[in-house]
Amino acid sequence: MSVPANLNIVPFISVENMMDLVVATGVERFLVELAGYIEDDFRRWESFDKIPRVASHSRDGVIELMPTSDGTLYGFKYVNGHPKNTNSGLQTVTAFGVLSDVESGYPLLLSEMTILTALRTAATSAIAAKYLARKEARTMALIGNGAQSEFQALAFKSLLGIDRLRLYDIDPGATARCRRNLERFGFDIETCISAEQAVETADIITTATADKHNATILTDNMIGPGVHINGVGGDCPGKTEMHRDVLLRADIFVEFPPQTRVEGEIQQLSFDHPVTELWQVITGEKMGRSSEKQITLFDSVGFAIEDFSALRYVRDRVSGSTSINQLDLLADPDEPRDLFGMLLRRQALLASAC
């Protein structure tokens, strides 16, 4: 892998750049193409370095680093999760990521990942549902209508043909905003007054709530045969969305068990409770949905390979573009070992300008 011609310069995808890229591509096309990159990397899952994300927990939230490498490229994401932030007008989740050349160690791309994380989370959810939901699924209950909700809806529409939504959030304003944002995309949308009402007639149930505690968004009596559950909100220790009895009735699919057993819904179960890794289903090594009445659960917590895929996709999309920012990020002395000399030359230049 070659490094940039100007070794000090690293392409930077700002929030504005990312929005322009998504708008120019079209959000549904972007989700489909991104999903292709994620699915390709899941098919070569065993070629990646894998560790659970490195998390620093506090009373108010968590800050995490999510690294991985395929031996040629290295990627990591910095991401936080602070549910109380919305009370002061801040985002619950913010993120940025880096993609680097393994051979030289030089960064190849620095990118915002607040928007990109929302897109890759939704794309991964839809990939899982492609293998786990019933083929005729068309109606999705979306419980938790925060920042992730529209992305989830559009990913399921783009990849699975979901066209009917049943929305519920404890904040009616969030549901109203979600409905308003999605109406232009051709959905049949019903606003519900409870989670129980939302799951009625739903083929797929997506939970994407933000509260940092063990909640009970779904109870056993709410889950009928044949339903696929996309559990997005439970993603750190002590934060879940489902009653344990729901898990005991479902066949559970996960990204990386050592991480999900600590952070996901299955933190409620014994450490040896059987789960299936999603990459094994995608490659055909394990079976996904096996019957029309089977209850399936994708216990999604987000894994570093998905971020790697997203960075790889964005780098390919912007390759050669002049509409992205260039950062003077790396020291590039004339003689690699003369870093101090580079400083002295800068000092002389500044002195001569005075």
TrEMBL record:
The keyword NAD applies. InterPro entries: NAD(P)-bd_dom_sf (IPR036291), ODC_Mu_crystall (IPR003462), ODC_N (IPR023401). It holds the Pfam family OCD_Mu_crystall. Keywords: NAD, Plasmid. NCBIfam families: PRK07589.1. Belongs to the ornithine cyclodeaminase/mu-crystallin family. This is Ornithine cyclodeaminase.
